Amino acid sequence: MLDIKMIRDQTDLVKNRLASRHAGDEAKIDEILALDDQRRTALTEVEQLKATRNKVSKEIGALMGQKKIAEADAKKAETKQIGDRISELDKTVESTESARNSKMLEIPNLPNEKVKIGKTAEDNPEIRVHGNKLDYSFKPKTHVELCEKLKLIDFARAAKISGSGYLLYTGWGARLERALIQFLLDLHTTEHGYTEVSPPFMVKAECMEGVGQFPKFKDQYYGIAVGDDTKELGKLYLIPTAETPVANIHREEILKESELPIYYCAYTPCFRGEAGAAGVGTRGMIRVHQFDKVELIKITKPEHGYEELEKLVTNAEKVLQLLGLHYRVIQLCTGDMGFASALTYDIEVWSPGQDQYLEVSSCSNCEDFQSRRMSLRYKTEAGENKFPHILNGSGTALARLFVSLIETHQQPDGSINIPAALQPYLKADKIPCPA
RNA sequence: GGAAGGGUGGCUGAGUGGUUGAAGGCACCUGACUCGAAAUCAGGCCUAGGAGCAAUCCUAGCGUGGGUUCAAAUCCCACCCCUUCCGCCA
Question: How far is CA A211 from CA A287, A333, A373, in A?
Fold first, then answer.
């Protein structure tokens, strides 16, 4: 969330930057300020009353010690009334504070000043392109055709057991998925210096809130119940990305400056309701309710946040380079950025079968937006507590990577060539096409 | 799920309802002593919110949330977590 002090002191700046997202959030700022003002008025008064009560209570203690019971009783009567007023004001402070905080949780992050002002994905600037679209001597098949022909995925039976939007990997398909996970984790841990973690796949609501998924996008995620116990429903949620558990690892901690930067990478499945997205690009593996992903997370000092983001993007790109895939890097404009992000690069890999680019990685610096929400700080050498920058990036999403990989490397005979970097993991140099 | 025990500052560990934000110790920081270090001595050393230009002051916090009281780490209630044992289980 945003710093309430910044909202107070630089109101116009905050409003302008929010307005650049074209989401109408700037209108909520005045409501927040009004509540904040009410809260502080009540707080100032109640704190003065409490100071008085504390003082008198001590005097009562002293009088009791001297056995001056009558005088003590007189003072008790005096503070009794103060007590009533205090509990009244305490309620005001609490209600205005909680109303203010709820509203603040719905305000997205401010775009960094480097971000291009724009409204939609049309306005996203392209940063760089790697490789180019291959010319095929035959009409390239789509990944759906390839998966069916090579029996990599059984779409029909996945739908039978779980409904639409789920994948049943089979045979070479399952092996390829597993090989990719292993390849990605090895790359990031041994080449890029990340520490591998394997987190829970279910988290508390406060973790969802910590990274910005709650409260605004609650209807996008799966809540878990034990059996039919509805009391349990809503206590835990299936993670939509490893970012959720991993970014929260150090929540409510004060790290030492010397511990930063922290680099984590994690493989997890990701669960997304995709509410409202039905029918939009839902063919095959492009948009599903469950997919695998290797995620990269960094916790850094604010002054290093952006150079670390550049490195993170490079780390994700390395995956695509090693797999021989054509891709481009774009920067999201203000109107297209996610809720928590201050600056985001998307990496889109080319899919010959779809004849379009597919987003396989989104790398963001959320600055201190998430660390404030989860109360993660670090102590500087000077003894000051500061909020670190939290960065996340896919390194990369698997389902779409799978799509691009098999479509790109398909051969005229229907088989799929495996790039050299992946061969040791799959223990094969091609996936054969059954007759 | 059942039984017992336990949750106090970075760690350890006291705490009869009333100068206890919290003794003592350890660790850490600053200064003194020293050529330097160790030892010793003096001081400092949590977090959040609010007022103030500032120095500083005030409020809150002893697992969490309620309650009793003029006053709660201390009494009452509920919940959470940890340890051990039992049950169940991949």
Answer: 22, 20, 7
* Dihedral sign computed on CA atoms, order A9, A11, A12, A17: positive
Which CATH number describes the domain made up of A4-104? 1.10.287.40
pLDDT at A278 (0 to 100)? 60
Identify the pLDDT of residue A73: 83
Diameter over CA atoms, chain A = 104
Q: Where do the structural domains in chain A lie, given as residue ranges?
A: 4-104, 121-431
| pTM across the whole model | 0.92
Residues with CB under 7 A from strand B: A 4-5, 40, 43-44, 47-48, 50-51, 53-58, 60-62, 64, 72, 76, 79-80, 83, 254, 377, 379, 383, 385
| Residues in chain A with pLDDT values less than 50 | 280
pLDDT of residue A154: 95
Q: CA(A404)–C1'(B37) in Å? A: 64
Please state, in angstroms and rounded to a whole number, the distance separating the CA atoms of residues A124 and A116: 8
Degrees to nearest 5, angle at CA A350 with A348 and A355: 120
Closest nucleotide C1' to the C-alpha of A81: B70
The answer to whether A4-104 and A121-431 have equal CATH topology is no
> What CATH class is the domain A121-431?
alpha beta
ipTM for the complex shown: 0.83
pLDDT digits (tens, 9 = 90+) for A253-267: 888 888 889 999 999
